[in-house]
UniProtKB/TrEMBL annotation:
GO annotation, cellular component aspect: plasma membrane
Name assigned to this protein: Peptide ABC transporter permease
One Pfam entry name: FtsX
Superkingdom of the source species: Bacteria
Organism placement in taxonomy: Bacteria, Pseudomonadati, Pseudomonadota, Gammaproteobacteria, Alteromonadales
Biased composition (Basic and acidic residues): 224-251
TM stretches of this protein: 16-35, 319-343, 363-392, 413-438
């Protein structure tokens, strides 16, 4: 205890240089833990994008390409699969539910996904969490759309507002489906997944947009967008006021619509998700789909393919860890430099300690204790900075990158990292301690110029 008190007072006596070293260690600990926590949470968020789905089925293509296009809305599917094949596979033994997916359109850079009522009932993410609504309800007919939370937030959309979908993916499109405007009837709660950046419409809406005849027929009793446009040109201001009143009435009417046909008669879809009554059916049905003769199809298990995809990103993970390790190493070398540079200034202090009875091993223990104290204090301050950073930045990470960071206790791996830092700090502190151990009493009492 006396040795610890002496080491603590020695640190206080050299507080300027010690604070600088301590701050360097704290910053490196904060960076190391932050990178590790973000890496782990990103991996968790990545793998929890889809949950509870046993198979994803699409036209014959690579497993990862099918996963990226159908779940992450990245890239494009080469081909679609026929509705007849979907109906046939859907009717197989053991199939509990299916979610058809039709992609290919967009709205101001956000993907448009066509599906049916099963999407809101069976789609799961995270720990088998269901989709829930922040405002409104699911779509009831082909003139309604449900927005992901990020779409509504970035575009400042609200319930009852009318939007137009564009043909093709991307921010720029030269073909807009102006004759099939959609009314916003629901806004989903944030999920931290690609669902947040997706507009959801019924399959029938996709069919109407791409059908041979754009009828422009919408909600019963409601005029088409083009009719409304002409109507604006043919009437004076007072009549425009009446039209606006009718417009809002129709949107209100859309929000109170009754459930109708959501599927229509599609010829093709992009892919579909499947869930089974028992996991035992998964491999059997997957084999049957991959050998399906009428059409070349691929069935992938999303969990397996997600692990393959994360394995491809392993190099990025290693680079991040290498960067963290280098930061910690630099901070410890900084502590070594500080201790070595102060050692010459402390020769007289150490000689006085030897003169009052301190043995060489006492000097060694004192120097090592100082290094351990500085490292331990640096780790504690780094932990405080780490939790402060998580508290401040978790909202930004969730909103911008969909990475959900939890303010939880340190994991066993993070504690192991701190342990490695402590051991490294002790080892680094032992280097000047060994030099001090061999200093003679006469060397310390004589002033070198």
């Amino acid at each position: 205890m006396t040795l610890i008190n002496l080491a603590f007072k020695s640190i206080i006596n050299r507080k300027a240089s010690v604070l600088l070293t301590l701050f360097t260690i704290a910053i490196s600990v904060m960076l190391l833990l932050s990178i590790e926590r973000v890496r782990q949470e990103a991996k968790q968020s990545f793998s929890s994008t889809i949950s509870g789905t046993d198979l994803i089925v699409g036209a014959r293509t690579g497993d990862i390409q099918l996963l990226l296009s159908s779940v992450f809305r990245i890239g494009h599917a080469n081909n679609g699969l026929s509705w007849q094949s979907y109906e046939y596979i859907k009717a197989q033994k053991g199939v509990a539910w299916t979610i058809p997916i039709s992609l290919g359109d967009s709205h101001k850079g956000f993907s448009v996904l066509g599906s049916d009522e099963n999407y809101f009932e069976h789609y799961r993410y995270g720990s088998k969490q269901t989709l829930s609504f922040e405002h409104g309800r699911p779509y009831h007919n082909a003139q309604e759309v449900v927005l992901g939370s990020e779409v509504a937030k970035q575009l400042h959309y609200h319930l009852g507002q009318e939007i137009v979908v564009a043909h093709g993916m991307g921010n720029t499109s030269f073909h807009h489906h102006d004759d099939n405007p959609l009314v916003i009837v629901g806004i989903l709660k944030p999920t931290g997944t690609p669902v947040d950046k997706t507009l959801h419409v019924p399959l029938k809406a996709i069919e109407q947009m791409h059908g041979p005849k754009h009828t422009g027929t919408h909600i019963i009793g409601r005029k088409s967008h083009n009719d409304a446009h002409d109507h604006d040109h043919d009437h004076d201001h007072d009549h425009d006021h009446d039209h606006d009143h009718d417009h809002h009435s129709h949107n209100y009417e859309a929000l109170n619509s009754q459930p109708g046909d959501l599927v229509g008669k599609p010829k093709q879809i992009t892919a579909f998700l499947m869930g089974f009554d028992s996991p035992l059916y998964t491999l059997q049905v997957r084999r049957n789909i991959n050998t399906y003769q009428p059409e070349a199809l691929s069935a992938i298990m999303p969990g397996v393919t997600l692990r393959e995809l994360w394995g491809m990103l392993d190099i990025v993970e290693k680079i991040l860890m290498l960067f963290s390790g280098v930061v910690v190493l630099i901070s410890l070398l900084g502590m070594l430099t500080t201790l070595l540079s102060s050692l010459n200034q402390r020769r007289r202090e150490l000689a006085i300690l030897r003169s009052v009875g301190a043995r060489p091993h006492h000097i060694f223990a004192l120097m090592t204790s100082e290094a351990v104290l500085i490292t331990a204090l640096g780790c504690m301050v780094g932990l405080a900075l780490f939790y402060s950073l998580i508290l401040i930045g978790k909202g930004v990470l969730q909103a911008q990158f969909g990475i959900s960071i939890t303010l939880s206790m340190l994991s066993s791996y993070e504690l192991l990292l701190l342990g490695v830092i402590m051991v490294s700090g002790t080892f680094i502190g032992a280097i000047p301690a060994v030099r001090a151990y061999f200093y003679s009493l006469n060397d310390g009492m004589s002033i070198k110029v």
